[in-house]
Design brief:
The chain crosses the membrane at residues 23-41, 61-79, 86-107, 113-134, 154-171, 177-195. By secondary structure, the protein is mainly alpha-helical. The protein contains seven helices and no strands. Helix 2 packs antiparallel against helix 3 and helix 5 packs antiparallel against helix 6. The longest helix is centred in the last third of the chain and has 39 residues, at 174-212. The radius of gyration is 18 Å and the shape is elongated.
Length: 213
C-alpha cells in the first residue's frame, strides 16, 4: 500500500488503530441516523435520488459495523469482509439503475426545497466522516472500502443539491434521475474496485499460509 513497504504487516497495525476504531463508530452512528432522515424525507419529497442516498447510508452503516467486527482479524478475513462490502456496493448501484428506470416511467416530479435541505444536511455529515477517514484511505481493502464509501457519499450529496436546484428551475424529474444514475455508477465502479483488491489480498494471504505449511 502507499507509504507502506508491505501489505500484510503494516496494514493490520494501521487497521487496529484506536483512532480508526473510534472513527468507525462515529461514522456508523451518523450513517444510521441519516438513513432514517433520508428515507422519511425522500418519501415526502418523492425523490429517487434521496431514496438512493438513504439506501446508501444504510449500506454504509452496515459496512462500518462489519469493519468494526473484523478489525483484529487476519488479512484474509478483513479482505473477505471487504469482498462482501464490494459486492454490496455494486448490487446497490444496479438496484438504483432499476429504480431510475421505474421513476422515469412514472414521471413524478420531486419536491425540490425539501430535497435540497436534506441534501445539504447529508453533505455536512458525509464531509465530516470523509475527513475523519481520510488518513486511512491507503490501508488494506477493508479500510479502502470504508474511505470509498465516505467519498462517494459526499460526491452524491453535492449532486443531490444540484439536482434539487435543477428540478426547481426546470420543473422536470430528469435532474433527480440523473443524480440517481450517478450514485449508481459510483456504487458499481467502487464496488468492482474493492472486489478486485479484496480478491487479490485473499489470494496473497492464502499463499503466505501455504508457504509456511
Amino acid at each position: 500500500m502507499a507509504g507502506c513497504g508491505c501489505n500484510t504487516a503494516c496494514a493490520p497495525a494501521k487497521t487496529m488503530s484506536p483512532k480508526f476504531r473510534k472513527a468507525l463508530w462515529i461514522a456508523l452512528i451518523l450513517n444510521a441516523f441519516m438513513f432514517f432522515v433520508e428515507i422519511i424525507g425522500g418519501a415526502h419529497a418523492q425523490s429517487v435520488s434521496l431514496w438512493a442516498d438513504a439506501l446508501d447510508f444504510a449500506g454504509d452503516a452496515a459496512n462500518y459495523a462489519i469493519s468494526l467486527i473484523v478489525l483484529s482479524m487476519s488479512l484474509y478475513w478483513r479482505a473477505t469482509a471487504a469482498l462482501l462490502k464490494g459486492i454490496t456496493m455494486a448490487a446497490f448501484g444496479i438496484f438504483v439503475i432499476i429504480k431510475v428506470i421505474w421513476s422515469w416511467w412514472i414521471g413524478v416530479i420531486p419536491e425540490p426545497m425539501l430535497m435540497g435541505t436534506i441534501g445539504i444536511l447529508a453533505l455536512l455529515v458525509n464531509v465530516f466522516v470523509a475527513i475523519m477517514l481520510y488518513t486511512f484511505r491507503d490501508g488494506d481493502a477493508n479500510m479502502r472500502s470504508v474511505w470509498l464509501c465516505s467519498r462517494n457519499d459526499a460526491i452524491a450529496n453535492i449532486a443531490v443539491i444540484f439536482a434539487a436546484a435543477s428540478v426547481w428551475g426546470t420543473g422536470t424529474v430528469y435532474p433527480d434521475l440523473l443524480v440517481a444514475f450517478i450514485i449508481a455508477y459510483l456504487g458499481v465502479s467502487s464496488g468492482l474496485s474493492v472486489i478486485q483488491q479484496a480478491r487479490s489480498e485473499r489470494k496473497m494471504d492464502q499463499s503466505k499460509v501455504m508457504s509456511k505449511a
